[in-house]
Amino acid sequence: MLSRLLGHWRQRRDARALQRRAIPDTLWSLTLQRYPFLARRSEADRDRLRRLTSLFLDRKRFSAAGGLELTDEIAVAIAAQACLPVLALGLERYDGFVGLVVHPDEVLAPREAVDETGVVHRWQEPLTGEAMEGGPVMVTWADARDAGELAAWRYNVVIHEFAHVLDMEDGLADGVPLLPDATARRRWCGVLEPAYDDFCRRVIAGDDTLLDPYGAEGLEEFFAVASEAFFVAPVDLRDQHPALYGLLTGFYRQDPAAA
Predict the structure, then answer these.
(1) 126/25 Cα distance (integer angstroms)
(2) Which of 6, 78, 82, 108 is deepest in the core (most CB within 10 A)?
(3) What pLDDT, in 10s, does the model give residues 155-185?
(4) Strand order in 137-140's β-sheet?
(5) What share of the chain is helix, strand, coil (3-state, %, to 5)?
(6) Is the peptide bond before 180 cis (omega within 30 degrees of 0)?
(7) pTM exceeding 0.85
(8) In angstroms, rounded to a whole number, what is the distance separating the alpha carbons of residues 69 and 229?
(9) H or E segment at 108?
(10) How far is the C-alpha of 37 from the C-alpha of 257, rounded, in Å?
């Protein structure tokens, strides 16, 4: 009885949210034209993505920084890309954060570290995106706006940062998202870790790699850059890294190469 009441309440809540955050046809068409990796999905996927995008806009709080003027075009473009990874998982996987901060372009973030001798080192790190446990998520509009063109480089800052959000769902940024049980975790590591080790060897050797060499920074970054390729260049990833593609297909419950 309680589950039925909760289900009915959620349906009414979502119906109201979809009315409040309805995306005009012209704006949705513009978004699909701008991002071919969204447009090439099936009609059913696009309809589900549009619905999730409206719910995302209703549940999350967007803030602009660096003089950027936040518009519906910006919000819908970022939200649609953010919802692609949870198209089959459900928006609840993003319940751990609320805020998004959008900068116009790359920002310099202050960093500090203490070495083994106790010396404090300070520097500024250029960022196009950043995800922290519990939020907020930061992305730059320049990179999110140009994601359609940047897909040729298997690059997508929004998908990258939201892969980190999924990775941190279990409290750790380690390249292993929240999985149903220990068996699933062992299987995940049994595929991801060898793929990562091979990738690092190739990066060190100076080989050209399908995935961004930044993925060699750690398993968490490897998962994020692999997720970028999975959604924006799925055929390339499937052809060059079939085991990794199969792993991500199982996790995301999507097969974008078949679209």
Answers:
(1) 36
(2) 78
(3) 999 999 999 999 999 999 999 999 999 999 9
(4) 61-64, 99-103, 137-140, 129-131
(5) 60, 10, 25
(6) no
(7) yes
(8) 30
(9) strand 107-114
(10) 10
